[in-house]
Model the fold of this input.
Amino acid sequence: MAMREIRVIGDPVLRTPCEPITVIDERVRTLIDDLLETVDYEGRAGLAGNQIGVGLRAFSWNIDGDIGYIINPEIVENASEFQDLADEGCLSVPGLWYPCERPLYAKAVGTDLDGNEVIVEGEDIWARLINHEVDHLNGKLYIDRLTKEARREAMRELRAQIDS
Done:
């Protein structure tokens, strides 16, 4: 296991959709170990494979001490008729928090390293986590979901960070 460096906006791996995991081998086991170790820090809620430079479909979570992972997650339920607008941040977009609309409930299905079904579901923060991490696996960042005005402001703030 290793604590991995978080890739930040501008790194092309974050904009590349992740490949499904078809074989559980040592590379995949290492990815899961690294995702679990890297997410296990204060202030980290979730982490997708591409955020640590591995373009495979897996993410880990750390919500109120509940730490886990899912391989090849697919969102099977999204209560999109009920939306929650709340500030959202991202380890790959450091220092920025902007209001982002997400479904109030989500359910994802995938597997663990042994091929057993894993179901991750919930409301509020769990729904936000599921959608945020699956977006990562699809090559999207939360700033892509912001209103036009908020996205423009976020990009200005990012440029200011780079220039300073």
In short: The two ends are 34 Å apart (CA to CA). The mean pLDDT is 94. The helical segments are 26-39, 125-137, 148-163.
